[in-house]
Specification:
This protein is globular. It is mainly α and 121 residues long. Helices cover 75% and strands 0% of the residues. Helix 1 packs antiparallel against helix 4, helix 1 runs parallel beside helix 5 and helix 4 runs antiparallel to helix 5.
Length: 121
């Protein structure tokens, strides 16, 4: 049951992160390349075991890239069940999803208001 829950949570986390990175295009030029690199980096780092990262790298994987909460933390919870860890993953999933949707819709409003077609006279 935990495996299915964390599979769904991991998919939502990675999708929300990709949406968040893609939404940067509303504000910054060439943000599509940056967003693509960030998503690819998170997928790449997800293939490595958690134990090899220490210090700053570990901080980045748990806070900047969502790899820690999508992959590593669920594995730790499944090996040694921890209700606090479970709630942490679920709360992170909800917050990241809410942030991605909010940033997307705010950027979409900004985009649609700047691309109005008006006749020139």
């Amino acid at each position: 049951l935990l495996f299915l829950l964390f599979t769904l949570a991991g998919a939502v986390i990675m999708t929300a992160f990709a949406l968040l990175m893609g939404s940067l295009c509303f504000w910054f030029l060439r943000a599509d390349a940056f967003g693509s690199h960030m998503v690819n980096a998170s997928i790449s780092f997800a293939t490595y075991p958690d134990g090899i990262f220490r210090g700053t790298a570990r901080f980045l994987l748990y806070n900047v890239l969502p790899v820690g909460m999508a992959i590593y933390q669920p594995v730790h919870v499944m090996f040694r069940f921890d209700p606090a860890g479970l709630l942490k993953v679920l709360a992170y999933t909800a917050l990241l999803c809410a942030a991605a949707v909010a940033v997307f819709y705010r950027g979409l409003r900004r985009y649609s208001s700047s691309s109005l077609m008006e006749p020139r006279t």
